[in-house]
Amino acid sequence: FPAQYNNIRTPFNQAVERLENLDNSMDDNTFYVNLSHILREFVENSVFIKSLEMTTEEIQSNKNIIPLEDTLFEQWISLLSRADQIKFARRISSQSQRNKDIKWSKDFLKWTRSNWKLI
Questions:
Q1: Is the distance from CB of 19 to CB of 104 less than 8 angstroms?
Q2: Which of 42, 45, 50, 72 has the fewest CB atoms within 10 Å, i.e. the most exposed one?
Q3: What pLDDT, on a 0 to 100 scale, did the predictor assign at position 117?
Q4: Closest by Cα among 108, 113, 38 to 73
Q5: Is 66 exposed, middle or buried (0-12, 13-18, 19+ CB in 10 A)?
Q6: How far apart are alpha carbons 106 and 117 in whole angstroms?
Q7: pLDDT tens per residue, range 64-88
Q8: What's the alpha-carbon Rg for the chain, to the nearest Å?
Q9: 5, 17 in Cβ contact below 8 A?
Q10: How far apart are CA 118 and CA 15, in angstroms?
Q11: Which DSSP symbol is given to 2?
Q12: How many Å apart are CA 46 and CA 97, to the nearest integer?
C-alpha cells in the first residue's frame, strides 16, 4: 500500500503547536527544557543543522552556518543561555520572563517562516 502523508506536520506547525501547548505552570526547569528543545528541534528540522546535539556554546561558535540575522541570533543565544542557567545552575525565572520568552519564540517562528524556505 502507498504511504499516507496526509497527517505529516511541518517543522513550523509542530513547533507552533508545541509552543501553544507549553504549560506555563510547570516548574522553571521543565518549562525551559521544553522551550529550548522546541526551538532547537525546529532549527534542526528546518535548516538541517544538528542543534539538538550542540551545546549553546557550539551553536554560538557555528553562527556562520545558521541563517539568522545577527540580532535575532544573539537573542536566540540569550534565551538558550538563560535556559541553560535555569536547567544547570538552578537559577529561577519570573512569570514575566517566561511570558516574554514565549512571545519571543513565537515571533522567532514567524520571522523564520517569512525568511527561510520552510516545507
A1: no
A2: 50
A3: 76
A4: 108
A5: middle
A6: 17
A7: 999 999 999 999 999 999 999 999 9
A8: 15
A9: no
A10: 12
A11: P
A12: 26
Q: Residue ranges of the alpha helices (H) in the chain?
A: 11-20, 28-47, 56-61, 70-88, 95-115
89 three-state secondary structure: coil
Cell of 112: 523564520
Question: 118, 15 in Cβ contact below 8 A?
Answer: no
* Residue type (1 letter), 9: R
- Alpha-carbon distance of 1 to 4, in angstroms, equals 9
Q: Do 93 and 82 contact (CB within 8 A), yes or no?
A: yes
The per-residue pLDDT for 31 is: 96
Name the stretches of the chain with pLDDT < 50. Answer: none
pLDDT at 99: 95
Q: What is the pLDDT of residue 103?
A: 96
Q: Cell 522546541, residue?
A: 38
